């Protein structure tokens, strides 16, 4: 059975995007900043270890215009080149009823996300990551997430898209890792207690 992880950068007040889908805070060192080299490498290594990435429409639309060709852009650093290649090669599933087609080693699912995620979890294959607030919320409410990874940036944005959704019952978690990155960014990983 596959392990399903939900991990994203999150503000200290619990948002994955500020109002207007603003992500300028996510680098960790002020507005419109980039993540530290160490944090960027951590995310890149995570992509390399992912057997299958599950994307909601909005996250797919944010990632797909940039990463497929980022390694060929002028001034691309070795880290960006590595990440772009890893991202492009990683198998992906996009869940959307409004997108007509996807590419870059990606499959489109237009049906019920929870049903498909259950089917994918039952496979004997590598770990899965899920990204996107709406898609992750559906998996969270269905009890499908095995691990939560919060990369907390020390900024308060006061509103936006929350990392966690409203739940019908408590989910008990066990801390399995914590780590500090430059700029006061803190990684915490929690496993769901079953």
What does this structure look like?
The protein has 194 residues and is α/β, with parallel strands linked by helices. It has a single domain (4-192), classed as Dihydrofolate Reductase, subunit A (3-Layer(aba) Sandwich). Helix content is 26%, strand content 28%. It contains 5 helices and 10 strands, in the order ββαβααββαβαββββ. The protein has helices at residues 37-49, 57-63, 78-89, 113-121, 133-141; strands spanning 4-11, 15-17, 52-56, 92-95, 106-109, 128-131, 147-153, 161-162, 173-181, 185-192. Strands 5-4-3-6-1-7-10-9 form an 8-stranded mixed β-sheet, sandwiched between helices. Strands 2-8 form a two-stranded antiparallel ribbon. β9 (173-181) and β10 form a beta hairpin. The chain is globular and about 45 Å long. The mean pLDDT is 92.
The CATH homologous superfamily is named Dihydrofolate Reductase, subunit A
Number of β-strand runs: 10
What count of helical segments does DSSP give? 5
Which structural class do the helices and strands define?
Answer: alpha/beta
Short description:
About 25% of the residues lie in helices and about 30% in strands. The protein has about 190 residues and is of the alpha/beta class.
Layout of strands and helices, then pairs:
Elements (H helix, E strand, L loop, with lengths): L3 E8 L3 E3 L19 H13 L2 E5 H7 L14 H12 L2 E4 L10 E4 L3 H9 L6 E4 L1 H9 L5 E7 L7 E2 L10 E9 L3 E8 L2
Parallel strand pairs: 1-6, 1-7, 3-4, 3-6, 4-5
Antiparallel strand pairs: 2-8, 7-10, 9-10
Helix pairs in contact: 1-3
């Amino acid at each position: 059975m596959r392990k399903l992880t939900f991990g994203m950068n999150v503000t200290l007040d619990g948002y994955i995007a500020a109002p207007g889908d603003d992500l300028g805070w996510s680098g960790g060192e002020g507005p419109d900043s980039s993540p530290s080299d160490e944090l960027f490498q951590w995310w890149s290594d995570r992509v390399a270890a992912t057997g299958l990435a599950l994307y909601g429409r909005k996250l797919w639309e944010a990632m797909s215009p940039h990463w497929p060709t980022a390694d060929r852009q002028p001034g691309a650093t070795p880290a960006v080149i590595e990440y772009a290649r890893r991202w492009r090669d990683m198998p992906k599933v996009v869940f959307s009823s409004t997108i007509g087609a996807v590419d870059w080693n990606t499959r489109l699912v237009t049906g019920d996300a929870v049903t498909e995620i259950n089917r994918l979890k039952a496979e004997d294959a590598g770990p899965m990551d899920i990204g996107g607030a709406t898609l992750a919320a559906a998996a969270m409410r269905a009890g499908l997430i095995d691990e939560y990874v919060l990369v907390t940036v020390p900024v308060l944005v006061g509103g936006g898209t929350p990392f966690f959704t409203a739940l019908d019952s408590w989910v008990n978690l066990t801390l399995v890792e914590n780590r500090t990155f430059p700029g006061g960014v803190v990684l915490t990983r929690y496993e769901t207690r079953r």
